[in-house]
């Protein structure tokens, strides 16, 4: 889920969009647009094997969820689901699909497509990124035997989750290992999208020619490095269909370059990079929108490296960081004081006891931890125009306030992720998270549960796992939040991730489009209206 940063954003302010760059290079069509994504090109398109922001953006266009958050009311509404019904304990959920939906190849969409797609993802040997989502479903362990840290599980004789059952052509049930009152909210996550039968039989053959069930389909062939060109699919019957007839997603690895492409009129929508925070309003007057982010940004410490295991050392690192100065450098950012985004129910303003800048206390904690051996390495993404700048800012604080030796390693973001996933990354890296569904639980389970599918640091604590389980089983939402806050307290005490800042996001859009802006679902170019 949202490993890089999720897309749920809350409106802050916007320009009026009355002037701009004309057709913006979107092919000249009245209802077509070019959306820039400042990231390395995707290697494949498969929502079940994707939890980063770039891939999720493509999935939002090509695949449809079971349920979604209504942009006008914030309530959960059905998309492909006709009903989602828990039993009295919230342990067994029955999902009934709306009739008449198909995939883009004409295949009828049935309950079997969900059951088989979810079982395929739940098999550890498939090694798909959203495997961890199914850890709450009965029978998960049989498909995911104990495996050395960082290794891929071997194929098992069991191929299906015992808790997943097809009841009829349009109905299936999910029995969880324990009650989970948040489960209905999780069904809006696109990592649960179904794949048609022909794709399930040979996923690799379709990883670059996906067959979706959403409002857009691939227009022609696609290979990594190419623009992803999509056209409206007339078979989509879900609510809130986008207005565009065609969309082009252009991957530009350098964020400054993507920004300049917008100013040159070749793209219609782009994120504003941190390097342009001070100038974007004058660079593109009346063509900007800003938003409060539901994302949180962290410095990640490796649990697999014994040098970082002492919590006091982690606390020392945290208290050596001047978050106010860092936030000023980032721009449109505010210092973090916890692990949860500020707009989520259950957020506490000063949850973190070790997030105040105090160089003297940090030195004392480092001494109590026995010091640090060797140099601290900070890895940063060369894709980001400011990656090295932010890494050096953190490094200078650790050097000046703790007397540590610091070095820096710049790599492509995907390479850093691969090294971390295989427990081969040396030292610290940056990470971020944004919720896939609006619950405090979604900031805790993925990153801090032992089996979490976005457990960036390789962290594990059975006590935290137990508290999360109690929160999951509590049907009273207020009581559940209290339990989740206890889990956050444990994670803050262990501090495998050091909270850094929450950031406003800024975007530029051409005069021909108005992105959809909602305090519930954020700023979305996909749902733009056309002038």
UniProtKB/TrEMBL annotation:
GO terms, molecular function: peptide transmembrane transporter activity
A Pfam short name: SBP_bac_5
SUPFAM superfamilies, A to Z: Periplasmic binding protein-like II (SSF53850)
GO biological process: peptide transport
Xref: InterPro entries: Peptide/Ni-bd, SBP_5, SBP_5_dom
Domain (Solute-binding protein family): residue spans on this chain: 77-454
Gene Ontology CC annotations of this record: ATP-binding cassette (ABC) transporter complex; periplasmic space
PANTHER family (UniProt xref): ABC TRANSPORTER SUBSTRATE-BINDING PROTEIN, PERIPLASMIC BINDING COMPONENT OF ABC TRANSPORTER
Name recorded for this polypeptide: Peptide/nickel transport system substrate-binding protein/oligopeptide transport system substrate-binding protein
Taxonomic source organism: Kribbella italica
């Amino acid at each position: 889920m949202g490993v890089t940063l999720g897309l749920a954003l809350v409106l802050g302010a916007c320009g009026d969009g009355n002037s701009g760059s004309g057709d913006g290079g979107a092919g000249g069509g009245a209802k077509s647009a070019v959306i820039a994504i400042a990231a390395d090109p995707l290697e494949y398109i498969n929502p079940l094997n994707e939890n980063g922001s770039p891939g999720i953006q493509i999935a939002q266009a090509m695949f449809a969820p079971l349920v979604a958050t209504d942009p006008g009311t914030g309530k959960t509404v059905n998309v492909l689901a006709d009903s989602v019904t828990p039993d009295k304990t919230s342990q067994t959920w029955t999902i009934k699909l709306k009739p008449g939906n198909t995939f883009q190849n004409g295949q009828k969409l049935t309950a079997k497509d969900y059951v088989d797609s979810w079982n395929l993802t739940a098999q550890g040997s498939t090694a798909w990124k959203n495997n961890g989502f199914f850890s709450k479903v009965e029978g998960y362990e049989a498909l995911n035997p104990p495996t050395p840290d960082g290794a891929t599980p071997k194929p098992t004789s069991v191929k299906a989750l015992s808790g997943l059952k097809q009841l009829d052509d349009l109905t299936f049930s999910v029995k969880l290992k324990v009650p989970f009152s948040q489960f209905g909210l999780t069904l809006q996550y696109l990592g649960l999208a179904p794949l048609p039968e022909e794709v399930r039989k040979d996923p690799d053959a379709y990883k670059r020619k996906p067959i979706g069930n959403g409002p857009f389909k691939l227009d022609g062939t696609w290979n990594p490095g190419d623009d992803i060109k999509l056209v409206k699919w007339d078979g989509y019957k879900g609510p809130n269909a986008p207005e565009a007839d065609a969309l082009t997603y252009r991957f530009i690895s350098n964020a400054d370059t993507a920004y300049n492409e917008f100013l040159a009129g070749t793209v219609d929508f782009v994120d504003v990079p941190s390097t342009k925070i001070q100038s974007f309003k004058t660079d593109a007057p009346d063509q900007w929108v800003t938003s409060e982010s539901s994302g949180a940004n962290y410095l990640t410490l490796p649990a697999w490296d014994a040098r970082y295991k002492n919590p006091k050392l982690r606390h020392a690192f945290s208290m050596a960081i001047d978050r106010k100065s860092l936030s000023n450098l980032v721009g449109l950012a505010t210092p973090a004081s916890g692990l949860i985004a500020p707009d989520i129910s259950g957020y506490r303003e000063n949850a973190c006891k070790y997030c105040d800048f105090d160089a003297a206390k940090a030195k004392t904690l480092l001494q109590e931890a026995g010091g640090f051996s060797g140099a601290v390495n900070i890895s940063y993404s060369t894709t980001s125009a400011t990656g090295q700048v932010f890494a050096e800012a953190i490094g200078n604080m650790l050097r000046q306030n703790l007397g540590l030796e610091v070095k820096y390693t710049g790599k492509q973001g995907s390479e850093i992720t691969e090294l971390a996933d295989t427990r081969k990354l040396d030292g610290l890296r940056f990470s971020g998270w944004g919720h896939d569904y609006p619950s405090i639980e979604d900031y805790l389970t993925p990153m801090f549960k032992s089996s979490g599918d976005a457990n960036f640091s390789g962290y594990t604590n059975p006590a935290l796992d137990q508290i999360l389980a109690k929160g999951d089983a509590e049907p009273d939402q207020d009581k559940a939040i209290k339990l989740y806050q206890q889990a956050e307290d444990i994670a803050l005490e262990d501090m495998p991730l050091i909270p850094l800042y929450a950031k406003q996001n800024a975007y530029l859009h051409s005069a021909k489009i108005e992105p959809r802006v909602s305090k519930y679902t954020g700023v979305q170019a996909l749902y733009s209206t056309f002038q």
